[in-house]
Amino acid sequence: KMLQVPFRATLLLLLLVVWSVAQEQSQAKGCVCGYPGIPGDPGHNGTPGRDGRDGIGGEKGDRGPIGLKGNKGELGLPGPQGPKGGFGNIGYRGDRGKGDAPVISKSAFCVGLTALTKLPPANAPIRFDRVIYNQQNHYNLQTGRFTCSVAGAYYFTYHITVFSRNVKVVLMKNGAKIIHTMDNYQSSEDQAAGGAVLHLEVGDKVWLQVAGGELYNGLFADEDDDTTFSGFLIFAA
């Protein structure tokens, strides 16, 4: 009996609720609709939606203005060597340089016999007394010797007019015999000659002398005939 009391109360309550709903529905069907009311205020913005899909590509736009100059880039790697170019135009002649002029060594002489010194004595330097050239005074007229003042290569030569006696002469260097020249007299004037290239050091002496005694000193000279002795520096050493 205790359980029947709550069950009956619950059933009555449920029936009461159903009846209340039925009453509201019947009232709604029987009412007359009025005019629309004033629109309400807009609601607040909702949260942004997600990004949509990419659209179809549009047409290419106009070229924009040139931008500002950018910073200088890093130096690139060297490129391959290009072909050889042609010859350019000849440049203008430069100014003359300044400096000391090169020193050119000079040494030369040419001397001859005269009627007073023809037929010179034997075994002694022939003292040629006619000066044709002796600008540097390297040939000594008093001793008949040439003295080297510039070391180098020299050329010595002699030309002899032979008359009345045989001729035998020798080219001497510091007392040593270098070359001999001999000619036998044949009852008329004859010619003899010789020459040599010598290397000389400063102070060396060179001369020409008769060898073989008085029978071989037929070196002749007059107004029409000459006997000469010459030498000059080829190049300094």
Automatic annotation (TrEMBL):
A Pfam family annotated for this UniProt entry: Collagen
Compositionally biased spans, kind Gly residues: 82-91
Bias kind Basic and acidic residues: ranges: 50-63
InterPro entries xrefs: C1q_dom, Collagen, Collagen/C1q_domain, Tumour_necrosis_fac-like_dom
SMART domains with a match to the protein in the record: C1Q (SM00110)
All copies of domain C1q, residue ranges: 102-237
GO CC annotations, alphabetized: collagen trimer
Designated name of the protein: C1q and TNF related 9
